Amino acid sequence: MIFSLDKNKKEDGNLESGEILQLKLNSDLVVLSSCRSGLGEIDEAEGVIGMQKAFFEAGAKSVVVSLWDVNDKYTSLFMQSFYKYISEGFDKSEALRKAKIFFKQNYSANPYYWSAFVLSGDVSKIQNVKTASSNYLLFILLGVFASIFAIYFARRKSSLR
């Protein structure tokens, strides 16, 4: 995979399997939505050796990849619906299936645009997707209420003087 270069001369902009293997991931899902991200070298004993395998070895539980060149615009639309179904609590394979159906019905029935994406690994739903956002909202609300009470008591105390 190639990323844009910054001013760091030590980095060549290429993400290679060896660099991925150095990561210590604890990820339920890695999505590689770039062109042909599921391809690699074929080894008789290991099968396909590429980015997908490297992410598994680095600790990913499941990986979504594309099998051929994909259109950026349609990939963005496809992934938005996939992430929506993930966030609604569907398991990964069902979220991918629903995203494909949604895309076929709303954008293009041509399989070139939606069938490039495949899921490997653990297909179970991602735990705590909603819980994490609910907890975040709860902490914000608690902070707002604490601020209101602090302001109220500070004003009350100053008016008593």
Topology:
Layout: H1 17-21, E1 30-32, E2 40-43, E3 47-50, H2 51-58, E4 62-66, H3 72-87, H4 92-106, H5 111-114, E5 117-121, H6 129-160
Parallel strand pairs: 1-4
Antiparallel strand pairs: 2-3, 4-5
Provide an overview of this structure:
Helices cover about 50% and strands about 15% of the residues. It has about 160 residues and is an alpha+beta fold. It has two domains: about 1-125, no CATH class; about 130-160. The strands form two sheets. The chain has a three-stranded mixed β-sheet, sandwiched between helices. A two-stranded antiparallel sheet has the order 2-3. The longest helix is centred in the C-terminal third of the chain and has 32 residues, at about 130-160. Residues about 1-5 have low confidence and may be disordered.
